[in-house]
């Protein structure tokens, strides 16, 4: 990890279009200066990622883009990124750019953008559940390697009723259906720690507010952006939070950045 700091700050942020939201992203990076950032939903083909702007902001970066949809990236401030893979194993025909994994500061970091799955039931929901099965196999393999691992990103999973405003309205949604939550909890049972819930087990915490019906103003949100920590990192977790004010900026994403701080 870092040699000259007592802690490392890692963030995840579904930017909802990296080029359209670039001023928001750069403003947030300058304001908070996280050491590592996982970005999702770039909505940019590989050649259109704003690499120069990110480098000028002080970050090295690897990314896997896709035209119009999806896309993931890992940024590291003044640090090397060693890419491990940019595809979730298990389906060679899956062309969605939803996963990228790298070593940064001697930590294995997986950045993911899990499928939404709506409408459910249907083919999109089937794809989501299949993706979760592949992710469960990969997360299990990572634990067997006895590495310090962080799996961060937009999971499109509402784990419990405490993670959504008016849960009764979400019972048929792919983010909250029993199959989705069961798959997520099976992954957690492998030995992962939900960083936010470890520090804030009962608090109402949201990371996403829809653009419609003044959801942000009413605080009618969801918690769907998560950090899962391997056992090696559980005791190093010292802080966590949501930069929810960023959701109130002009031309911003419908997600807010989420972050954790680990002791070195």
Written account of the structure:
The chain is of the alpha+beta class and 264 residues long. Helices cover 24% and strands 27% of the residues. It has helices spanning 22-32, 51-56, 123-144, 178-188, 195-199, 215-218, 231-234; strands spanning 7-14, 36-40, 59-64, 72-77, 82-85, 99-104, 107-113, 149-154, 193-194, 208-209, 221-222, 225-229, 237-242, 258-263. Helix 1 links the parallel strand 1 and strand 2. The N and C termini lie close together (6 Å). The mean pLDDT is 97. The record marks 255 as: Interaction with DNA substrate. The record marks 156 as: Transition state stabilizer. Belongs to the DNA repair enzymes AP/ExoA family. It comes from Solitalea canadensis (strain ATCC 29591 / DSM 3403 / JCM 21819 / LMG 8368 / NBRC 15130 / NCIMB 12057 / USAM 9D).
The share of residues in helices is 10-25%
How many domains, as an integer? 1
Query: Shape, please?
Result: globular
Biggest β-sheet description: 6 strands, mixed
CATH class: Alpha Beta
SSE string, helix = H, strand = E? EHEHEEEEEHEHEHEHEEHEE
Helix/strand class = alpha+beta
The total beta strand count reads: 14
Q: Rg, please?
A: 17 Å
Taken as a percent bin, the fraction of beta residues is 25-35%
| Count of alpha and pi helical runs | 7
Based on the coordinates given, report the CATH architecture. 4-Layer Sandwich
CATH superfamily caption: Endonuclease/exonuclease/phosphatase
Average pLDDT, rounded to a whole number, is 97
Please state how the strands of the largest beta sheet are arranged side by side.
Answer: 3-4-2-1-14-13
How widely separated are the two ends? 6 Å
Low-confidence stretches: none
CATH topology: Deoxyribonuclease I, Chain A
């Amino acid at each position: 990890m870092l040699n000259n700091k007592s802690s490392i700050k890692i963030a995840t942020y579904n930017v909802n279009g990296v080029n359209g939201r670039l001023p928001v992203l750069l403003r947030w990076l300058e304001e908070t200066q996280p050491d590592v950032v996982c970005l999702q939903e770039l909505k940019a083909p590989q050649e259109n990622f704003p690499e120069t702007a990110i480098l000028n902001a002080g970050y090295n970066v690897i990314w896997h883009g896709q035209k119009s949809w999806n896309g993931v990236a890992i940024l590291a401030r003044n640090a090397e990124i060693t890419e491990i893979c940019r595809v979730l194993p298990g389906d060679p025909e899956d062309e969605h750019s939803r996963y990228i994994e790298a070593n940064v500061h001697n930590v294995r970091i997986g950045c993911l953008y899990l499928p939404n799955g709506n409408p459910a039931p249907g083919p999109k929901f089937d794809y989501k559940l299949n993706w979760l099965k592949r992710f469960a196999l990969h997360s299990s393999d990572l634990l067997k390697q006895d590495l310090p691992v962080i799996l961060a990103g937009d999971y499109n999973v509402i784990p419990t009723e405490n993670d959504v405003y008016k849960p009764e309205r979400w019972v048929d949604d792919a983010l909250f259906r029993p199959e989705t939550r069961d798959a997520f909890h099976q992954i957690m049972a492998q030995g992962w720690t939900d960083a936010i819930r470890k520090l804030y087990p009962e608090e109402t915490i949201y990371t996403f507010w829809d653009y419609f019906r003044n959801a942000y103003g009413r605080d009618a949100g969801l918690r769907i952006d998560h950090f899962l920590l391997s056992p090696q990192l559980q005791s190093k977790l010292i802080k966590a939070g949501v930069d929810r004010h960023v959701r109130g900026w002009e031309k911003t994403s419908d997600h807010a950045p989420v972050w954790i701080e680990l002791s070195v």
